[in-house]
Amino acid sequence: MTRSFSDDAAHRRELEESTEAVRSIMAACEDNAAKSKAIFKKVVPQEKARWLERYRKAVQAVMPNKKLKVEDLMKDVLEKLQLLHTNHF
After folding, report:
1. Degrees, nearest 5: CA angle 29-43-28
2. pLDDT category, 68, cuts 50, 70, 90?
3. Treating both helix axes as pointing N-terminal to C-terminal, what angle do 64-86 and 5-43 enclose, rounded to 10 degrees?
4. Angle between the 51-61 and 5-43 helix axes, to the nearest 10 degrees?
5. Does the model's pTM come out above 0.70?
6. pLDDT-above-90 percentage for the chain
7. How confident is the model at residue 16 (pLDDT cuts 50, 70, 90)?
8. If you write DSSP's letter for every residue of 1-69 in order, what string do you get?
9. First to last CA, the chain
10. For residues 23 and 88, what is the distance between their CA atoms, to the nearest angstrom?
């Protein structure tokens, strides 16, 4: 079965739209991952940090506002990945 030029053009447009949708989702995931990494870098103590500094960083890491933000970012990443998995763009 041969495809016509219009079929090829429509197929190319469909692929381009799908590609753009996937890029958008992946960009959002990358952004959320970068934000999560920045939060973790702030709360993970340096290797040579004193005991008090390690304790302070550990307490900050479990503060509700930081925990919720990281959880929200990761939840959004997982939802977007599930969207990619379940939809055939």
Report:
1. 10
2. low
3. 160
4. 140
5. no
6. 28
7. very high
8. -PPPHHHHHHHHHHHHHHHHHHHHHHHHHHHHHHHHHHHHHHHSPPTT--HHHHHHHHHHHTSHHHHHH
9. 24
10. 14
